[in-house]
Amino acid sequence: MYGDGSQTRDLIYVYDACAGMHTVMHRGVAGEIYNIGLGVEHSVLDVARLVSSLTGAPIEFVLSHRFSKFDVQRSYYNIGKVSRLGYRPIYSLEDGVSTTYTLEREKATLMDVGNIVEVPMGE
Hints:
With 123 residues, the protein is mainly α. It has one domain (8-108): UDP-galactose 4-epimerase, domain 1, CATH 3.90.25. It contains 4 helices and 4 strands, in the order βαβαααββ. It has helices at 14-27, 44-55, 80-83, 93-109, and strands at residues 8-9, 42-43, 111-112, 115-116. The strands form 2 sheets. The protein has a two-stranded antiparallel ribbon. β3 (111-112) and β4 form a beta hairpin. α2 (44-55) packs across α4 (93-109). The protein is flat and about 45 Å long.
């Protein structure tokens, strides 16, 4: 990561992103621009620490003080406009990362030495 990891990003769980797009498609005005996000800044370092705490894997943070001229220090979405249409993200950063990690672990248990095990689908 560049710098000390204090750069911020607005990260959103895929379910909430889809819910936001659904809200805009059904309630938005054609041609208007809507920001779909969580509406909260999280530092890159905090996200890395969260992933490390969930996985139990030690992460070595190699911090560089060289910023790219293209690196953005702060990034988050003002979701006020889409919220007025009824959009409300339901997954916090912690919930989204935890859910993703759990789903990836479950997917990994379906693998058998590189071969995908057939999983019966619900009816």
